[in-house]
Design a protein that fits this description.
The chain has about 290 residues and is mainly alpha-helical. It contains 15 helices and no strands. Helix 4 crosses helix 6, helix 11 packs parallel to helix 13 and helix 12 packs parallel to helix 14.
Length: about 290
């Protein structure tokens, strides 16, 4: 379960929290714009977002509200009409278009349609690029779809970037969404998946450069929790270690202090590998707060 270390509450406190959440939601101008605010803008979510149990309550509330107020009806009708008239692929393409636009009502309509849970809706939504709207709320549509049972590792095409790859290079504060990376790893994302170039998520992150603390945290997370080895080569021969070393040697970049322990640790491990001919372990001291 994804929890902050400080998130320990009694059942009374949880009930109080739930009531305060409902009070906040009732103060919103609900309906079409209100539910959009809840799922995407998400200011009321901020203090509930780090706990799966609280997230379950949020999702249940959203589904119940949608059932009562019919917020996703137009989306549902649009998808069903397309499927009836032109087949499933036509409806799928409409859903895909809406998920790429981070439309929360698409997610609610999908929930109501009882579709195959291996459809790649989570991956599709992870390709959304207008950071200012969706990533300020920490991937809430993806979390809703996972709560609804959809596969976090499914892709539409073999050439599509896996969901982890989409987040390890996502600029938020200011370089990557570390909370999304950790959450995805804890909820079944395939850490060993590679993109069309054969790069795993650690190599993809390394190719993008690592010059600040959030990038370093993602690097550690992929090694510690994803089990990815920084010395495993990509098809072109590059490793996360070699890419990181080249990046750090580039004087155009300002190096964050969080990297000061990472580089010597990798250097020492690489030297031991050369000396002993053994394979490196990828477990490091976790720098993630």
């Amino acid at each position: 379960m994804y929890k902050d270390s400080t998130y320990e509450e009694s059942s009374v406190a949880k009930k109080t929290k739930k009531m305060s959440l409902l009070d906040e939601l009732n103060n919103l101008q609900f309906g079409f714009s209100g539910l959009d605010h809840f799922l995407v803008q998400s200011e009321p979510i901020a203090k509930y977002k780090n706990d799966d149990e609280a997230w379950d309550e949020l999702c249940e509330f959203t589904v119940a509200y949608d059932a009562e107020h019919h917020c996703s009806d137009k989306h549902l009708e649009k998808y069903q009409q397309a499927i009836t008239a032109d087949g499933f692929e036509a409806g799928f393409q409409l859903i895909k278009k809406d998920l790429l636009a981070a439309d929360p009502f698409a997610a609610l309509a999908i929930y109501r349609m009882n579709l195959d849970k291996h459809l790649p809706f989570i991956n599709i939504n992870s390709q959304f690029h207008r950071i200012g709207r969706v990533y300020m709320d920490e991937f809430s549509i993806i979390r809703f779809l996972e709560w609804a049972g959809f596969d976090v590792s499914a892709t539409e095409n073999p050439s599509d970037a896996p969901v982890l790859h989409n987040f390890v290079t996502r600029c938020t504060r200011p370089s990557t969404n570390i909370r999304a990376v950790l959450w995805l790893l804890e909820h079944g994302a395939d850490a060993q998946a590679v993109n069309a170039e054969g790069d795993n998520a650690l190599i993809t992150r390394s190719r993008s450069g690592i010059a600040n603390s959030e990038s370093a945290e993602t690097f550690y997370a992929l090694m510690n929790f994803g089990g990815l080895n920084p010395f495993t080569p990509a098809p072109d021969g590059a490793t996360a270690y070699s890419l990181l070393a080249a990046h750090l040697a580039d004087t155009r970049y300002t190096i964050d202090p969080a990297l000061e322990d990472l580089v010597p640790a990798l250097d020492a491990m690489h030297a031991e590998m050369v000396r002993s001919g053994t394979t490196a372990t990828t477990k490091f001291g976790v720098l993630i707060s």
